[in-house]
Amino acid sequence: MLLACDIGNTNIKAGIFADERLTEFHFLPGITPLLGLIKKNKFRDIVISSVVPSKTKYLADNLHTLNLKPIIINNNSSFNLKIDYDSPETLGIDRICSAEGAYYLHSKEKELKKEQVIISIDLGTASTLNVVKYPRIFAGGIIAPGADLMFRSLKNDTAQLPNVSIEAYKNIIGRTTDESIASGVMHSASGLIVSAIKLIQTETKAKEVFIYITGGNFGNIKRFLNFEYVYEKGLVLYGINAIYKKNNGINPHS
């Protein structure tokens, strides 16, 4: 069994793979429960994608005490996608893994063709859109504040606005300040995605766009999405598994 770990700014996603199958998915609040999961199982390998270096180091140090040596994906790893990015050293590993996951899932069904584009969307602390062009090229994308980050920013960086959550949302026209903030945040977050997809399709001249979505804010935003997509909670984990296989000389679809 392989354990794939996606360490984000807020939570950790962990998936157990048996060959190509994601057999278990765990949504964890921190390193301690992740270590508990690891101690209960005998994993062939533990592969980590992380955007929080301090958490990565803490996990790796604890694993070494258990005589386990994790594989940490970084910008020097080999990828199934060709990275066409002007500053590859600054490219977040989570974005690569998200795009790799989308490409892997799409390729299981059909080959990516010219004038087709894959977009992976991760709705987490930040909202990211990542573009994969023919022939399997990571072409860049968009990074924007996620819905929770917008709520916190309005609370922390203004003098009089209250602390609000998505539960305050009622309609596009807010009838209270709480409702107005919730409307602004949710329509900003979802409107960005809807608009960006159209602009990406125009810029790439793509005749078809295939969209894969993941992330903790999906449940809050999905009601506002008016396009076809595939939702996969383990999208980044599938990407981690595909990258692991690439670096071990295994065909991801074998």
Topology summary:
Blueprint: E1 2-7, E2 12-18, E3 21-28, H1 31-40, E4 45-50, H2 53-65, E5 71-72, E6 82-83, H3 93-109, E7 116-123, E8 126-133, E9 137-145, H4 147-156, H5 177-204, E10 208-214, H6 218-221, E11 230-231, H7 235-247
Parallel strand pairs: 1-4, 4-5, 6-9, 7-10, 10-11
Antiparallel strand pairs: 1-2, 2-3, 7-8, 8-9
What does it look like?
Helix 3 (93-109) packs across helix 7 (235-247) and helix 4 packs across helix 5 (177-204). This protein is α/β, with parallel strands linked by helices. It has helices at 31-40, 53-65, 93-109, 147-156, 177-204, 218-221, 235-247; strands at residues 2-7, 12-18, 21-28, 45-50, 71-72, 82-83, 116-123, 126-133, 137-145, 208-214, 230-231. Strands 6-9-8-7-10-11 form a six-stranded mixed beta sheet, with helices on both faces.
For the structure shown, list the relevant keywords.
single chain; 254 residues; alpha/beta; 6-stranded mixed beta sheet; 5-stranded mixed beta sheet; globular
Give me a quick take on this structure:
With 254 residues, the chain is α/β, with parallel strands linked by helices. Helices cover 37% and strands 26% of the residues.
Strand order of the largest sheet: 6-9-8-7-10-11
Mean pLDDT over the full residue set: 92
State the share of residues found in helices, binned by percent: 25-40%
- Which class best fits the helix and strand makeup? alpha/beta
Low-confidence parts, pLDDT < 50 over ≥5 residues? Answer: none
Strand content: 25-35%
Distance between the termini: 16 Å
